[in-house]
Write a sequence for this structure.
């Protein structure tokens, strides 16, 4: 298969390779699992593309779905052969293969090789730039690490044995030497040295310190759930909140998003809900900025129609499958779904979340919705959440 094209010659040539095979026993389909509404492999690609020192971003995979997602995110894709795609295959093998496919006899032009792992969802562009800079400044290898203060023990047949301390003389933390925990997020290697040694560590090795609170590797289902819970609060510095350059359209759920999910029911069966005036101001500001706004509701309710009419926006109701309806609307409007912000609160919004680049949950959203969101508002539904996302997009308080 013909590999994807590489950019024109630049120096120094700094190539990031993201290994992302399709098989995973611990977490099936792991590299396409969403954290903050974004598949892990896409998070890794976006972090690399936002870094300033990389000249090429490559994904090595044996899986067509991963390849498609990676290309759509902007990466070059190398198809990995079966012999280096199994459970025992090492990341270094994938990196070496990718370089061989893309550069062949010209591989000596690669100055720095960067290995970025999908399993670390909170890797930032700054961390990637810093491991590259460490090598450009003289190190042979560099890696991300966080300060570690724990007491390690190793299980033995006769009992546990202290590893990094003496159990009879446990020093206070400030009296112990600084220890670093390898995060597994990003590694940089001098190109020639990596090709000669075929491993990530050699020569002079430098650790690049990163905040301990961002360290999380996804190896088991529980790790994935923790990452999803942490995603809204662990701002990554590159995809925290959307701006005008990220969004062309906003899709709004109604019940629980523009309302607080309560209904006043009269004796004659009629219903009333409360909406927030500030949300109307937010929608008006979005429309003035040229941003399309759609209300998408599962229920068919004259209240929703009345609200849409007052706001002057399109409304589609009685929607059983919000994902399909949203995709159809984007096609009609000629809007890239990756540039759509969807604001929701309940599980029927999840199919819509899966179709857009900016799935956002209101603060009062149900836990699975918050977990799937790329961002979460501080305001609950019906209390100004729409105005809040308008402020994000337009970059000013409304």
């Amino acid at each position: 298969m013909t590999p994807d094209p590489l950019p024109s010659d630049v120096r120094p040539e700094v190539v990031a390779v993201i290994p992302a095979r399709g098989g995973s026993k611990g977490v099936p389909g792991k590299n396409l699992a969403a954290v903050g509404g974004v598949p892990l492999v896409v998070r890794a690609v976006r972090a690399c593309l936002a870094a300033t020192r990389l000249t090429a971003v490559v994904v090595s995979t044996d899986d067509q779905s991963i390849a498609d997602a990676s290309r759509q995110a902007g990466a070059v894709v190398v198809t990995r052969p079966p012999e280096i795609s199994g459970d025992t295959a090492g990341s270094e093998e994938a990196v070496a293969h990718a370089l061989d496919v893309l550069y062949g006899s010209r591989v000596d032009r690669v100055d720095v090789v960067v290995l970025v792992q999908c399993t670390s969802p909170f890797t930032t562009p700054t961390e990637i730039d810093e491991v590259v800079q460490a090598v450009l400044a003289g190190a042979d290898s560099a890696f991300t690490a966080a300060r570690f203060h724990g007491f390690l023990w190793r299980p033995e047949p006769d009992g546990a044995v202290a590893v990094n301390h003496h159990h009879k003389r446990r020093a206070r933390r400030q009296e112990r030497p600084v220890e670093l925990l390898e995060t597994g997020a990003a590694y940089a290697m001098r190109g020639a040295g990596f090709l000669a040694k075929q491993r990530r560590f050699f020569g002079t090795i430098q650790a690049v310190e990163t905040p301990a609170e961002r360290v999380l590797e996804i190896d088991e289902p529980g790790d994935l759930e923790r990452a999803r819970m942490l995603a809204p609060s662990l701002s990554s510095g590159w995809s925290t909140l959307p701006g005008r350059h990220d969004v062309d359209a906003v899709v709004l759920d109604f019940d629980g998003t523009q309302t607080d999910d309560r209904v006043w029911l009269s004796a004659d069966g009629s219903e009333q809900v409360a909406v927030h005036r500030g949300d109307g101001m937010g929608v008006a500001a979005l429309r003035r900025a040229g941003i399309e706004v759609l209300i998408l509701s599962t229920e068919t309710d004259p209240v929703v129609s009345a609200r849409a009419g007052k706001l002057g926006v399109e409304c589609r109701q009685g929607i059983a499958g919000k994902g399909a309806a949203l995709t159809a609307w984007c096609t009609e409007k000629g809007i890239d779904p990756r540039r759509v912000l969807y604001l929701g609160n309940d599980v029927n919004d999840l199919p819509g979340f899966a179709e857009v680049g900016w799935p956002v949950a209101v603060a009062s959203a149900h836990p699975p919705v918050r977990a799937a969101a790329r961002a979460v508002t501080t305001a609950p539904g019906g209390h100004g959440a729409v105005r809040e996302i308008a402020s994000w997009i337009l970059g000013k308080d409304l």
Remarks:
- The CA atoms of residues 75 and 385 lie 34 Å apart.
- The mean pLDDT is 88.
- DSSP finds twelve helices and 19 strands in the chain.
- The longest strand covers residues 179-190.
